[in-house]
Amino acid sequence: MAFHNMMEEIVRNCLKDLMQHQPRLAVLDDKNMDDVMAIALNRLPPKYVSTTRGEMFAKTQLRLQVETDVYRELTLAIERVLTTD
Question: Whole-model pTM?
Answer without folding.
Answer: 0.86
